[in-house]
Amino acid sequence: MADREYGFDTLKILAGYDSADNKYSVSPPIYHTAAFDFRDTEHAENLFTYKEAGYLYTRVGNPTVTYFSERVKALEGAKNAVAVGSGMAAITFTLLNLAAKGGTILASPYLYGGTIDSFDRLFPEVGVKIKLTRNVLDPVALDKELSEGDDIKGIFLESISNPNAYLPDIDAISKVAHKYGVPVVVDNTVATPYIYRPLEHGADIVVYSATKGLTGHGNIIAGLILDNDKLDYYTEDKYPQFYEPIVMLKGKSPKDVFPDNFFIFRATLVYLNLLGAALSPNDAYLGILGLETLSERVAKQSSNALKIAEYLESSPAVEWVRYPKLSSYKYKEVADKHLTRGGGGLLSFGIKGSKEQEALFLNNLKLFHYLVNLGDVRSLIVNSPDTTHSELTDEEKELADIPANLIRISVGLEDVNDLIKDLDQAFKAAGLLDADSSAA
Question: 164: how many CB neighbours lie within 10 A of its CB?
Fold first, then answer.
């Protein structure tokens, strides 16, 4: 697979795996083992000092997990990758790796609530400052911010934001960031590589919660970190952690051992190894199965989501709708330019009514699952301000543009007409539509 260029749909089924290495098993085996035998003492030493590739302990490496990460790497167009135990682990390991010696991460305020919660509570405890600012999304304002700050170690944002479905211009943002030698980290969870590939737009690092649309079935917790191996920004004066000797490497630094992969290598050696958020082989296998239907799933979710967004925009029960393919979308110009395969399955809307009516609406839905995941084959719905983003302060909610009446939908693969009828009847049950009106 490495010697030729293949299309996306070929890669999602075949990339990163050779049956000849696994007794010609067509499907990647589950290496359900905690540890691996050493051939001899020399082999053990070589593995522990990274002189030889191989596996020694599943916490830091397992063949099934490798097959999963290699397949996503191919789909993303990345050069290096590591799979970890969750999307939050991917974010945490990445930002700690960038700011290991302290410093500031500039972050978009348009993020998943759990990410912002970690920014408020976890990172300050380890000496990393996170600054939430809309300047990240404005190239002119970002240029000014970077020119005035000498300790900025990275920029973090989501390609399609959760729950607003905002789409920043990563090309323009990356161009400004690179002017100051600052890498750009993009959480591409909502988009998936089928919809958008941030590395092609100037981003340096991509992270995923593979729990969601990437695998699609809602049965695993998993995360990934990927990069493009453009490592010139990590200079020794600004990022000394990559150049400092590590005892386990017999006095060598991550850059000495893997000059073309020292960012991912250090994240694996230090954070995955020592903090232990490992992805299990069984979950990696389920992730591989999910990838095999990525294109078909996301294409239909995008089609369904647009029809639902158009229905909601025409409904008297709805105040506003946010979805990339609507003409009223805040970032429509960027969406038309970059989201050529569809707008994805995530949308949000403002419900017209009291909190009591909102509860009646949610409680009367029959086809939508009321829960806090997204990207599932099933359609999901949640009142984000009271659940996924309930950790945010009132000021953070205002900065993130999350009004109290926001409802988030993750559209699945059901018949879209059935989904629209379900929304319609729930609006009626909540007293937000006349009983004799019909769905569009």
Answer: 23
Give the residue from 246, 308, 307, 199 showing the smallest Cα distance to 100: 246
In the three-class reduction of DSSP (H, G, I as helix; E, B as strand; rest coil), residue 412 is classed as coil
Return d(Cα 282, Cα 30) in angstroms, integer.
6
The DSSP secondary-structure symbol of 195 reads H
Find the farthest-apart pair of alpha carbons in the chain and give their distance in angstroms, rounded.
79
CB contact at 8 A, 149 and 99: no
Of 105, 128, 80, 127, the residue nearest 267 (C-alpha): 80
Give whole-number Cα distances, 121 to 90, 98, 117, 270, 391, in Å. 17, 18, 6, 21, 11
Measured CA distances, 229 to 29, 99, 171, 263, 302 (Å): 29, 18, 18, 8, 31
- Residues 6 or more apart whose Cβ sits within 8 Å of residue 415: none
pTM score, whole prediction: 0.95
Q: What secondary structure letter does DSSP report for 28? A: P
* CA–CA dist 369, 389 (Å, integer): 18
Q: Report the distance separating Cα 347 and Cα 305, nearest Å.
A: 7
Which residues does 335 contact at the CB level (< 8 Å), separation at least 6? 167, 324, 325, 329, 343
Q: pLDDT, tens digit, for every residue of 301-319? A: 999 999 999 999 999 999 9
- Give bridge partners of residue 347 from the DSSP assignment: 409
| Measured CA distances, 355 to 62, 271, 358, 381, 430 (Å) | 48, 43, 5, 16, 10
Euclidean distance between CA atoms 377 and 383, whole angstroms: 19
Q: What is the DSSP letter of 148?
A: H
Confidence class for position 440, pLDDT limits 50, 70, 90: low
Residue 132, helix vs strand vs coil = strand
Strand-pair category, 152-158 with 128-132: unpaired
Residue 69 has pLDDT above 80, yes or no: yes
CA distance 430 to 376: 26
Q: Are 260 and 78 in contact (CB under 8 A)?
A: no
Question: d(Cα 397, Cα 289) in Å, to the nearest integer?
Answer: 37
Please report, as a single letter, which amino acid is at residue 178.
Answer: H
205-209/184-187 β-pairing: parallel
